[in-house]
């Protein structure tokens, strides 16, 4: 790979899926006979893989029950899939920014997300994004964020280098993952963590709108930021 790599988180970065995630997690807990977590708690774990997220939401659950909640979550998500355009819309400017980056000869795009591959595929298909990404890494592939695995593996799959890679995400988990992998960390402020949380987790630049993302990403990669 001679191109630079821009890796995007999904929930809270590309799509505004908070209401869908809260509703799905609530129903999953109820289905297995447990009190649902508070919405604020659910928002705080967005970005983690599903079993780790559920374990953090209720530390009293044993592994078997975590598995049952995760299965219920997946089933509920699939039942809602036909409503993704409504319940997980793209953030304003996302498509234009992705197309602007994809049009460059020196850039490849990818996704690194705590979603399952099935869930990510549904999002990409719903919004017509499938053909834009050269590499996809999900919770099905390895350890959860903030472990650097997804970034390291995505870079390796394209024969690249972490020093030529930037991760674009909305949570501290994304920033910590990026920095642990040796990649640049670009935080976006329209998602589920604030500016201070992103900065404390290692964000090297912050975008307040998707229109800013291409220039900020390339600035980091070209050593201008």
Automatic annotation (TrEMBL):
GO molecular function annotations of the record: phosphoglycolate phosphatase activity
GO terms under cellular component: cytosol
Annotated SUPFAM superfamilies: HAD-like
GO terms of biological process kind: DNA repair
Top-rank lineage group of the source organism: Bacteria
Pfam families in the cross-refs: HAD_2
Protein name: HAD family hydrolase
Organism expressing this protein natively: Pleomorphomonas carboxyditropha
